[in-house]
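User: For this week's homework, look closely at the record that follows, marking any run of repeated tokens, and judge whether sequence predicts the tokens.
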Amino acid sequence: MPRPERESRDGLENLLRRFRRELSESGQLRDHRRKRFFVSKGESLREKQRKAARRRRHREMRMQQRETRRG
């Protein structure tokens, strides 16, 4: 857990800003949010497959748009 030390002239706002920055840089908050709910292996696999399919569709659409621009 990030623990910024309070310097002599630091205000509470600066301390809070440094804490938030260190927390986001460490990635702990992101991990906590990701692990907040239980997700089974099958469900995570299905989610990965859905995301991959979406990426493929977007790539194909971009390629088609590029080809139509070249005409």
Q: What stands out?
A: The chain is about 75% helix and 0% strand.
